[in-house]
Amino acid sequence: MSRGLFITLEGIEGAGKSSNLSHVQDLLARTGRDVIVTREPGGTALGERIRELLLHSRDVDISADTETLLIFAARADHLQKLVSPALAQGKSVVCDRFTDATFAYQGGGRRVAHKRIATLETWVQGELRPDLTLLFDVAAKIGLERAGNRSSPDRFEREDREFFERVRQAYLEAARREPARIRVIDASANPAEVRSQVDRVMEDFLRGVD
Ligand SMILES: Nc1ncnc2c1ncn2[C@@H]1O[C@H](COP(=O)(O)OP(=O)(O)O)[C@@H](O)[C@H]1O
Ligand SMILES: [Mg+2]
Predict the structure, then answer these.
(1) In this predicted model, what pLDDT tens digit does every residue of 164-177 receive, in sequence order?
(2) Which atom of ligand 1 is nearest to 13's Cα?
(3) What ranges do the domains of the chain cover?
(4) pTM here?
(5) From the alpha carbon of 150, which atom of ligand 1 is closest?
(6) Are the beta carbons of 167 and 105 closer than 8 angstroms?
(7) Hey, which bits of the chain come out as E strands?
(8) Whose CA is nearest to atom 18 of ligand 1?
């Protein structure tokens, strides 16, 4: 049996990842694939507990290095227990954020050295990389306005606009380095237009693998 497809959705807060997750799932399911949808940090019982620490710790200070290590600890658990077994069984996995987010947030946003993150990436993932990454790209101002409508901001959402502009630029640099894997979606468009861009990228990608 061949390994399932591993597809990740990336972008700053409010870009439209969660809004498009089930659509990507549907497009894959229509090709007859078994599909699992998950998210990072999280996806497992332990991963979700680490997510709680990362997103909602108000009373403790978490340094950039500690944050990066916690994210990779959650990732190791997620890969071992959920993602890798599913892929090995031929199931496809759609994940809301993955390691590109670590390079963008902890690397671009918090200025953790790229090389350190790359070391952890190899340790935790070995050779595993997403087959396709949809990067929902939007200006920080727009993303934050959209996310601002959410009830209470998490630890990241409390960062300022400059932080998210650095995150956005780090994502775009990654897309320039790996244009075949990371496909940029103009997420400033209206929801229907964003969805049709997703359709086009997915069609193109699936043509290449089928
Ligand atoms: N293209 C769009 N135009 C306007 N609003 C959008 C668009 N995409 C998503 N939204 C809205 O913006 C908010 C954040 O979207 P969401 O998909 O949760 O973003 P993310 O998961 O990337 O943080 C939601 O209220 C959603 O309905
Ligand atoms: Mg989301």
Answers:
(1) 999 999 999 999 99
(2) 23
(3) 6-209
(4) 0.96
(5) 25
(6) yes
(7) 6-10, 35-39, 92-96, 132-137, 182-186
(8) 18
